[in-house]
Design goal:
With 232 residues, this protein is an alpha+beta fold. The chain is built from 9 helices and 4 strands; from the N terminus they run H-H-H-H-E-E-H-E-H-H-H-E-H. Strands 2-1-4-3 form a 4-stranded mixed beta sheet. Strand 1 (96-100) and strand 2 (103-107) form a beta hairpin. Helix 3 (38-71) packs across helix 4 (85-92) and helix 3 (38-71) packs parallel to helix 8 (169-187). The longest helix is centred in the N-terminal third of the chain and has 34 residues, at 38-71. It is elongated.
Length: 232
């Protein structure tokens, strides 16, 4: 039960200042959520998938228009430079970190990334899907093996039920969680797993740096909240 849930969780990229204890605690919390309210994790995974797909389509559409304006035709983006669902997942999980004057500032939201790339404010070389998958700690084979193990467990329970053999409540609970985790696997199939380092995006020195970023604002709010708790 715990192994099935642990392998199904696909956490986002941790912050640069996050320690191993914080990263491990966050993942354990996600695992507990998957055990207690697996339906919530499925909805969360589905929402991430649709957001990643929308981001991929929007990114490709904007870049196609930009290439068409530059080349004077209606050329589409080639498959080698296509922004895929994997790219969308990578963007939503904090995979693109903005560097200003050589120093890391904050992870970019997909909307900020698209805006800066479209306006030419950043130096960004296209990141191939294979390069993102290379950073992932899991692939289709490992995920497929996990699903096969779940299917084998289901077949064993079905055979015991057909033979009128006893089945414990723990096995029934494991069956329910494993079945729900299959849906989670499906939504997160193209999401990179356990990526620890984001891809650097460098701000051009000739362009005025942005005054504020979404994730930067969130970090400031969390820091103020933590300081208030310590003061209390």
């Amino acid at each position: 039960l715990f192994a099935c849930t642990w392998t199904a969780i696909h956490p986002n990229i941790p912050g640069l200042d996050d320690r191993k204890l914080a990263i491990m605690s966050r993942r354990i919390l996600l695992m507990v959520m998957a055990l207690v309210v697996p339906e919530l994790v499925i909805v969360w995974a589905a929402r991430q998938f649709f957001s990643a797909r929308y981001t991929a389509n929007e990114f490709n559409e904007k870049l196609s228009k930009k290439l068409a304006q530059a080349d004077g035709d209606h050329r589409k983006i080639g498959e080698e430079s296509q922004f895929t669902v994997t790219h969308g997942f990578f963007a939503w999980m904090g995979g693109f970190l903005l560097y200003v004057n050589g120093h890391p500032r904050a992870s970019l939201t997909p909307k900020e990334l698209l805006h800066f790339v479209h306006n030419g404010s950043v130096d960004m070389h296209f990141v191939a899907k294979a390069d993102i998958e290379d950073r992932s700690k899991s692939d289709a084979l490992s995920k497929g093996i996990a699903i096969i193990q779940i299917a084998w467990f289901v077949l064993q329970l079905a055979a015991r039920y057909a033979q009128n053999l006893p089945i414990t409540l723990l096995e029934i609970d494991t069956l329910a969680v494993a079945a729900l985790m299959c849906f989670t696997y499906g939504w997160w199939w193209k999401k990179p797993k356990d990526v620890r380092r984001p891809y650097p995006i460098h701000w051009k020195n000739s362009v005025l740096a942005p005054s504020s970023l979404a994730y930067e604002y969130v970090v400031i709010i969390l820091a103020l909240h933590s300081s208030n708790l310590l003061a209390f």
